[in-house]
Design goal:
The chain has 81 residues and is mainly α. The chain has one domain. 59% of the residues lie in helices and 0% in strands. It is built from 4 helices and no strands. The longest helix is centred in the middle third of the chain and has 16 residues. It is globular, with a radius of gyration of 14 Å.
């Protein structure tokens, strides 16, 4: 199994603290998938921007359809997220 250095939520400062605080407001916690990007808060911010646009931005797909696509992709990839 790979090991990736991360900054845990209780040690976050500056820009990373801002991103983690947004994550807690959205989801109630900072999921590991976000902590993996903790060494580069700009990448974390950009990744979340893309995710939020794909899932909540204008689209011909309904919100439910987008979630269904995400579930199928996650299952196919063996990912529990």
């Amino acid at each position: 199994m790979a090991f990736i250095t991360t900054i845990p939520p209780d040690s976050a400062e500056g820009e990373l603290r801002v991103e983690y605080d947004k994550a807690v407001r959205r989801a109630g916690k900072v999921w590991n998938i976000l902590q993996v990007m903790s060494l580069n808060p700009g990448v974390l911010r950009a990744s979340m921007g893309l995710y939020l646009q794909v899932m909540f931005g204008p689209s011909p797909l309904s919100r439910a359809q987008r979630e269904m696509v995400a579930v199928v992709v996650s299952k196919t990839n063996g990912c529990h997220y």
